[in-house]
Amino acid sequence: MNIFSFYKGWPAIPLLLGICLCDFPAHAATINPSAFATVTKKIIPQQQVQVSGTITDGTNPLAGVTISVKGKATAGTISDFNGNYRLTASADDIVVFSFMGFVTVTEPIDGRKILNVQLQEDATQLQEVHINAGYYSVKEKERTGSIARITAKDIETQPVTNVLATMQGRMAGVNITQTTGMPGGGFDIQIRGQNSLRFDGNSPMYIVDGVPYASEPIGSLFTSGHLPRRTSPLNSINPGDIESIEVLKDADATAIYGSRGANGVVLISTKRGKAGKTKFTGSVSSGSGHVTRFMKLMNTEEYLAMRREAYANDGVTDYPANAYDINGTWDQNRYTNWQKELLGGNSSINTMQTSLSGGSKQTQFVLNGTYNKETTVFPGDYKYEKGNVHLNLNHESEDQRFRINFTTGYVVQNNTMPTADFMGTALSLAPNAPSLYDVLGNLNWENGTFENPLQLLATDFKGRTNDLIANSLLSYILFKGFELKSSFGYSDLRYKELNLLPSTMYNPAYGLDSSSSLVFENNTSRNSWIIEPQANYQLTAGQVKIDLLAGSTFQQQMSNQVVHMGYGFSSNGLIENPASASLFSIMNSDATMYKYQAFFGRANFNWKGRYIINMTGRRDGSSRFGIANRFASFGAVGASWLFGDEPIIKKHAEFLSFGKLRASYGTTGNDQIGDYQYLDTYSTSGSNYEGISGLQPTRLFNKDFGWETNRKLEVALETGFLKDRIFLTAAWYRNRSSSQLLGVPLPGTTGFNSIQANLDAEVQNSGYELTLRTLNLQGDKLSWTTNFNFTSARNKLLSFPDLKGSSYQSQFVIGQPLNIVKVFHYIGLDPQTGTYQFEDLNGDGLLSANDDRGFVKELNPKFYGGLQNQLKYGAVQLDFLFQFVKQENYTEAFGTLLPGTMSNQPASFVSHWQNQGDRGPNQLYSTGINPTAQRANTLYSQSDAVIADASYIRLKNISLTYDLPKQWTKSFSCKLSVQGQNVLVLTSYKGGDPEFKTAGFMPPLRVYTSTLQITF
Asked: In 10 A of CB 544, how many CB atoms?
């Protein structure tokens, strides 16, 4: 057969035109020029070019991106593991790049042979993202439970070292408060309120890569005096290694964790290797931190005027010999702002991070290393150092049936701090106190009249942590839809802290030597293993998708803590050697074993992709409970209706791109009570009989000692508008916690004050959560995304048997929140005597704590939330987060000594009563000789007068990032960024930092850092 081609170059065109003119002579004179051009274009094949390039998300290559030619269904390809592609197309074609979760990009070839593309995340496709729900993952659109989530992209903009700091202000229903600004300090977290009557029974469960991570404090009260809380182990988790954090809140999400899910579950997933060419990323950041706000205190003139007036009011004309500030011993013209002197330094913050990652389609790896060093704002050479290594290996067989994942991390922390916080001294020290150093540069004791605050420089707190966590997950697909897998986890934590108090810290005038030196040492170890075999079966029957999961848990944890004290050494150089102490005493010695076993399951039914039911259950057994209640069952059911996918909605409500109504109800438990609480236990009596130390009973046996139970109910509505450019989630929840674990009072005839038991008290937490995400702008270069979260929560004690007759009557009130204080009601200043007055509730003419301290002030926030924005323009990205809280807190007047004593006061105390008829607002000054004024000041600190509005709006975080153009850097990528944390606060609060809850400790710091990151 002969094959003829009309295309032999341009000379063939006249021949074709001639044929057309011969066939249609009547129309030859009316040919449209544009039609001519169209016909010519269709007939003449365009020049073909080979186009290649790399596709990234700005940092990492993207594999699996679909590349097609617009208008040509047969032309296309997919990017490989390194994000590279090759495509044959015409020189004037338009190439389309599309990838799930990213904005589709179109690029004209325009004769180019190299076409590199950077894709941006598409906020309108987030419903297709799989999120971690613990034992399983689920599409965002198909989840039936309440799960909040942040990712590495949210974390990397924050210059923080604690995992809880990364979540602050970013999640609805998650309230996080920083407890101190000192390096190595901790945070308090509550997920949907306080469920337990015990303060230490409200922590969530933490799971790192499938391994439960015990969050109980590892410090000791004898050695952690520089912190408001005992040392927390959570500092071991490096934020830079985290890929995502999911917080499980409702029953549907938490019931599968049974007895440990009552207070929520925090799932931490670390970074994993990705297929592609081997990539190295290194970053260096440096910055500084300083105290956000100082309290306004009296200056020297105001302070001395207060002191003179106080003595005059007390009828004292000759100042005592120890009144150094006013009797002429100290310079009365001297002024020192002690807050700036002791807390006004700059904290240096330096971080180095490296990462090596890559792999093939079957095997991937990532190896991360981080070093962080942070100093303090205090005088002296103090520092907190943390170094860690993170390794992840993934492998999949060629037939994709066998998979293994191995993750491990090792952290070393060294923390050297003063043994006490300088904040309390900075607030109380007289403003005319002597200088810290004498003319020779030595500590100034001003001839024995001055307790120099820098005596703390001779003391040391030393903490060292070694923490290992490892997990391996093996899975095998026996046949289509059926998978067997098992995870094996291990953790080992070793912690040692020293509190060194050498004799050199004291005034030399005391004549003390090393025989007066004192040291406390705490050694804590904690190791655990966990094995969790599981089976998962997925099948489709008609329009129903079924997902079944069954598994079991076997876990053991051993803990050991020894705290000892040494006193009297031959030399201060031997103070860290307990064998050198003349007096050695064991303060505490505990060794515990915790065993846990469980069986759990899940059944998920999805009909037509619109009607979903999710059922979870768990049967738990714990060694922490009595033999009669050692096992318990927990479960939940969740359901969702994707009404936005109903045909009638799609037809008549095109503006609604997504709609889901979900609800859940179930029970979870709480076992945060410690070990052996149900047993009858004995301890040493401290007395010797014929050289043998005796024993004494310390706890009664209770075989019925069981779990706290939390019944959770939630209803939520999720809606998306305009192709999910506006996405709103509104939720209402109500949790009721019963069978409270605490000491139940006993008659004195039993020989015990209480017995550990389940009290029939009930606590309720309810509230509303609102989350709004808007895609304000989205273009090829410019995008703007906003995320807003709002939580309004209410905590209430519903019942407490015989509360008025118990030892808890001064702590709780039925119908009120748990986080309350019962206070006296301040009714004003007596204009005749100049002392504070309070309401006598029972009218007996006396003021007593039991009868008249009946007014309730709540310290829980009324509402809280955050507003986060991200703006991108080309290679520039700006992120900022505003955090807001509506609350009350203690004012600057709380805890102050009697105005007039040798202690500085807030500047507001300058306005005070002086003569009959004055209204104050503060009472008369006194040195303490006036008992009426002294008692009135004590009652004032226990009244509602020292609790006021402490609401605030804080610019919590801001980050500006710039990716250098590829044509500048050629073979590598370079990113420059600056970040700020706790940048600005707007508040009417008169004290220090409004977020801070503990007086006498340094509040959070304002931090600025700059970062350079290179990838090649």
From this structure: 12
